[in-house]
Amino acid sequence: MSHPITPRARVGVLISGSGTNLQALIDEAAAPGFPAEIVLVISNRLGVRGLQRASAAGIATLVINHQDFDDRASFDAALNEALESVGCQIVCLAGFMRILTSGFIDGWAGRMLNVHPSLLPSFPGLHTHQRALDASARVAGCTTHLVTPEVDSGPILAQAVVPILADDTADTLAARVLKQEHRIYPQTLRLLAEGRIRIVDGRAVIHDQAPPDGVILVNPTME
Ligand code: GAR
């Protein structure tokens, strides 16, 4: 089944912290012709910098504190209700540090993106930069992918590679990787909003051009 998407896809962004990736999405979405607009930013934490970034850009914000819920399913149901209440068509996880239930993820299949600070499938999970240093890896990087129920493992959409330097710490490496996250995440949102991503045999196939008929489609079918 394909979901028709209006010329500017309505995007909800979920954050937990500083929101520099959110900022990159906001900045890129302001460019003329960008096929998506951010209509809602939800944080599971009160008072984080990302909420200020959204407000400064005139974007509606909401705090849904996971500690106010008995279990993950009811927290995710509240997220879903908020996203649907403003007609979101795409969800971007941008430093959102909660594990989502498969029920929630299935509802957004093919329409939910994540950015992760490693070259997946290496180093899923936390502390990616220290783990790359500990492994004597020579390169590091970041990945955007569609979100599937297994954490950090959905079809990969874009990656960027950076060198690991002899004097790198986890912090210096994180800063170098983060710059690349800011580059590939908006590019990936553009591809999804333009309907150029299809999943074939579990792999992402990216079409050179948007569908020619003027209808922008996101196909959530995992074939
Ligand atoms: C980013 O590096 C992002 O890739 C990472 O958290 C940071 C958030 O920074 N996300 C994860 O580790 C999720 N698995 P930001 O709030 O400044 O965008």
Q: In short, what is this structure?
A:
31% of the residues lie in helices and 26% in strands.
Model description:
The protein is of the alpha/beta class and 223 residues long. It has one domain (9-221): Formyl transferase, N-terminal domain (Rossmann fold). Helix content is 31%, strand content 26%. The chain contains six helices and eleven strands. The strands form three sheets. The chain has a seven-stranded mixed sheet with strand order 4-3-2-5-6-7-8, sandwiched between helices. Helix 5 crosses helix 6. The chain is globular. The N and C termini lie close together (11 Å). The structure holds glycinamide ribonucleotide. Glycinamide ribonucleotide (GAR) is lined by residues 15, 17-21, 50, 94-95, 115-117, 178, 181.
Helix and strand topology:
Layout (H helix, E strand, L loop, with lengths): L2 E3 L3 E7 L4 H10 L6 E8 L5 H8 L3 E4 L8 H14 L4 E4 L8 H6 L4 E5 L11 H7 L4 E8 L9 E8 L6 H24 L3 E4 L2 E4 L9 E3 L5
Parallel strand pairs: 2-3, 2-5, 3-4, 5-6
Antiparallel strand pairs: 1-11, 6-7, 7-8, 9-10
The site of glycinamide ribonucleotide (GAR) has 14 residues, from helix 1, strand 6 and helix 6.
Task: Name the descriptors.
binds glycinamide ribonucleotide; 6 helices; 11 strands; alpha/beta; disordered N terminus; Rossmann fold
CATH class: Alpha Beta
In the CATH classification, which architecture applies? 3-Layer(aba) Sandwich
What pattern of helices and strands is seen along the backbone? Answer: EEHEHEHEHEHEEHEEE
Uncertain ranges: 1-5, 213-223
Strand order of the main beta sheet, please? 4-3-2-5-6-7-8
State mean pLDDT (0 to 100 scale). 92
Strand content: 25-35%
Q: Report the structural category.
A: alpha/beta
| Total strands | 11
